[in-house]
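User:
I study polymers; will you set down one protein's sequence and backbone structure tokens?

Assistant:
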Amino acid sequence: MTTPNIPFRLTTPWQGSDPFLFAVFHNDAYPAGDADMGPGDHRPDGWQMYHGRKIPGFPAHPHRGFETITVVNSGFVDHTDSVGAAARYGQGDVQWLTTGGGVTHSEMFPLVNQDSDNPLELFQIWLNLPPEAKTVPPEFTMQWGEDIPVWHSPGGGTVKVIAGALGDVTPLSPPVNSWAADPANDVAVWLIDAPANSTIDLPAPSQATTHRTTYVFQGDAVIGEHAVAQGWGYLQVGTEPTTMTAGAEPVRALILQGVPIGAPVHQYGPFVATSQTELQDAFDEYRRTQFGGWPWPTTEEVFPREQGRFARFPDGSEQRPGQ
């Protein structure tokens, strides 16, 4: 575990603190897209194809026993999964997926702009599930950027409130089986934008055991009395408030907070369990059932270029921003 109250250098992926497993930060300078929404032969530095062949992204792969929270600040993600959900989301949207007993999904990054670059900036956060929720049915939820509330700091700056109430700002509801669904677990996911020379004062966590980790991914900050430079993090444990001060340049940071689940964590690749036996059961079930099979024509499914942001749920209902 990261040592509290001592800044630490961020690794890849970013280190998590219970109840969070880790977070991955993708910041890719994708070029203009070709007719297939891929980079074609134009391959400058500053981005990766990941496991995509024509289009960057992550073709169909399984998960079990935790939740993914995907925060897309710029660019787009095309999502398809084994329970029939689908979406194109981005430009401030958040997808929150409880994998529970098992789901296979694809996350592709279509380069929709043909006449300009396609920058992509996103976080994928892995939030653990408690033992009693490890095998709950999968749940697919969307938070449209227009609906996510923002807290305005009196000292300047804003906090995008994805989870965890902040002041008088109440977040949208998390999935029903999430560790975040019970306010007593003190879960928060906050995205901070602090202008140069501003100060953001965050209230103390509500529980003495709460872990609050700040990941500084742009600019240099001071948290309390500690300098926390870009590419560094800071973990607090307990009920101390947080004061973050930006220097001569703006600061952007992600805060992940929650009461620890406190259960054993056995992870192998995309599966998270509380024992080796449970982990083996997950592999056996995936080999046997493929977590419902794959109902899409390809494992790298993308939607037409002109397709706007949308979400289609397993029951066939659809939702778009503003609805």
